[in-house]
Amino acid sequence: MTEGAIVLYGGAFDPVHLGHLAMAEFARQELRAGEIRFLPAGHSPWKKGHQVSFEQRARMLEIALEGSGFTLDRREGGREGKSWTVDTLREIRREVSEPLVLLIGSDNLAGFPGWKEPEEILELATLAVINRPGGPPDSAVPHLALEWPAMEISSSWLRRRMAAGHGCRYLLPEGVWAYIREEGLYGTR
After folding, report:
1. Strand 144-146 with 126-130, pairing
2. Which residues contact 189 (CB under 8 A, 6 or more apart)?
3. What is the count of structural domains for the chain?
4. Which end of the chain is more exposed for a tag (fewer CB within 10 A), N or C?
């Protein structure tokens, strides 16, 4: 059902960390995916704002994805207004014929019925849910459940650590950690 599919992995990636990459690799193997696309959110309807610009988040993803076989899709960065998942899926569906899989964390599953046009999202893509701390174990929303040995790491936790002056060298891809320090992001100056 998902073999050869394009797996779409969206999020703020503010910043991208090793947990994101490990989750993507796990999903690639479990789903036998043909492609994993990282889709950084342009203007997320669920977040009050991002710590750094879209271009900085996309640049960190470029660095992190180098040599991984994963791809970066920047389409939401050029979009005016909110970045709705259903709009992105519609665009991608017009471009490709392969099955689409939308990868989300279980912490997002409870809110899924409140997303813009959730029924159409489920028509456009298979929903694959990877368990994460704080996420509901069961849901009435049809989905594929991916059970992985969760890494309890989050971008918000990393931002707090960096703002407090703590290093995050082994929690981020090496090039991303260097970029964050060079640019003075998240209070690292």
Report:
1. parallel
2. none
3. 1
4. C
